[in-house]
Design goal:
- Helix 2 crosses helix 7 (about 305-320) and helix 3 runs parallel beside helix 5.
- The protein has nine helices and four strands.
- By secondary structure, it is mainly alpha-helical.
- It has a single domain, classed as Rhopdopsin 7-helix transmembrane proteins (Up-down Bundle).
- Helix content is about 65%, strand content about 5%.
- A hairpin with a 4-residue loop joins strand 1 (about 10-15) and strand 2 (about 20-25).
- It has helices at about 50-90, 100-125, 135-165, 170-205, 215-255, 265-295, 305-320, 340-345, 350-355, and strands spanning about 10-15, 20-25, 30, 45.
- The strands form two sheets. A two-stranded antiparallel sheet has the order 1-2. It has a two-stranded antiparallel ribbon with strand order 3-4.
């Protein structure tokens, strides 16, 4: 072990006469603890206060996200009861785990919430919680993030299915575009899951070593670029959703469906579409931010600071409208006019636009 960068001026380089090695004894408020590429014992470049601030924001995002999720689940459960009653009249039984919105919200409860709270608490209160080296926080991040990303893909595709009904004259065009988006989206998620798992667990297995020689340098870069690729896919599909939703709104305007003389049902549908566009644009902003951050943090001088993009993006998921939970925050009253409603997959517009 050797001292790097004179401990960044935030510690003392101690020489061990027994092992004939040197290591950094960091001053209060400074640490060599770093996610994905540990500098612990080698440097003292990270401010523990700055790190706690970032992860406190992630905790705040988790609190806001939980409140939103609670509201969404309560509203969608009301929709589920209505759908269940209709199914019973038709001689069919409907269970909550077969109801798409409750499926996705249940996955969200098991993924995003534990990730924000669990990782936040561990990063703030534990001096040993290094993603990529500590088994506890590493497995928590991997399990919840990977499952959460898959759920996000399913939610985005269902949303696309709903709005595409009124956008394409040829149904085959919609199927071809969906197939392309599905392949692109699941492909990017698959690459991220493999690369992230390798980057995070390899450090847990091998342990810490000199960061200037550690193979974690390369797994870190591969992991960041794979996540940037996933976020770019998120940007692409939400851009498509915005474009197709705009087409629907323009069709409604040209057909005279919207405006001061429009029916209450049409106005409600238009409000749903506007909400969909706002949510998609928020996701696009986060995708741009995440893609930029993770690409920039592949640069060697920023290797010791990987905790910041991770914490910032987590906070973004909770504080902004970039999570699919926002698609299910509409009240049941505002979705009665739709064929399947926001309750099942997103706003269905076929009957309104074509009628």
């Amino acid at each position: 072990m050797v001292c790097l960068n004179d401990c960044s001026g935030h510690g003392s380089c101690i020489f061990d006469n027994v092992s004939l090695t040197e290591w950094c004894l960091c001053n209060d408020g400074w640490s060599g603890k770093s996610d994905l590429l540990s500098y612990q014992g080698y440097d003292c470049m990270n401010s523990t206060i700055a790190e706690k601030v970032v992860w406190s924001l992630a905790l705040l995002g988790g609190l806001i996200w939980t409140i939103k999720h609670t509201i969404a689940i309560s509203r969608q459960y009301e929709s589920f009861k209505l759908a269940k009653a209709r199914s019973a009249k038709q001689g069919r039984r409907l269970y909550w785990f077969n109801f798409p919105s409750l499926q996705l919200l249940a996955i969200g409860v098991l993924t995003t919430g534990p990730m924000m709270f669990g990782c936040g608490v561990m990063k703030i209160f534990s001096e040993y919680a290094e993603i990529g080296y500590d088994w506890g926080i590493s497995l928590l991040l991997l399990g919840t993030a990977n499952l959460g990303f898959v759920a996000n893909v399913l939610a985005e595709l269902r949303q696309f299915d709903a709005i595409s009904k009124g956008c394409f004259k040829n149904p085959q065009d919609a199927k071809n575009l969906r197939k392309y988006l599905q392949k692109y989206y699941f492909g990017s998620v698959g690459v991220y899951v493999v690369c992230s798992t390798a980057a995070v667990l390899s450090g847990c297995i091998v342990g810490r070593s000199n960061p200037t020689e550690s193979p974690q340098r390369f797994t870190l870069i591969i992991r960041n670029l794979s996540l940037a690729a996933f976020l770019f896919a998120m940007l692409k599909i939400n851009k498509t959703v915005v474009e197709k939703t705009t087409i629907l709104v323009n069709q409604m305007i040209s057909s005279g469906i919207t405006g001061s003389t429009a029916s209450k049902e049409s106005k409600k549908l238009e409000a749903v579409l506007e909400t969909l566009v706002a949510n998609s644009k928020a996701k696009m902003k986060t995708a741009i931010l995440g893609t930029t951050l993770y690409s920039i943090f592949c640069i060697p001088p920023l290797w010791p600071y990987q905790t910041y993009p991770i914490g910032i993006i987590m906070a973004q998921f909770g504080i902004t409208k970039n999570h699919y939970v926002h698609s299910y925050l509409q009240s049941t009253k505002s979705t009665k006019v739709t064929d399947s409603g926001m309750n099942s997959q997103g706003p269905s517009t076929t009957s309104v636009v074509k009628g």
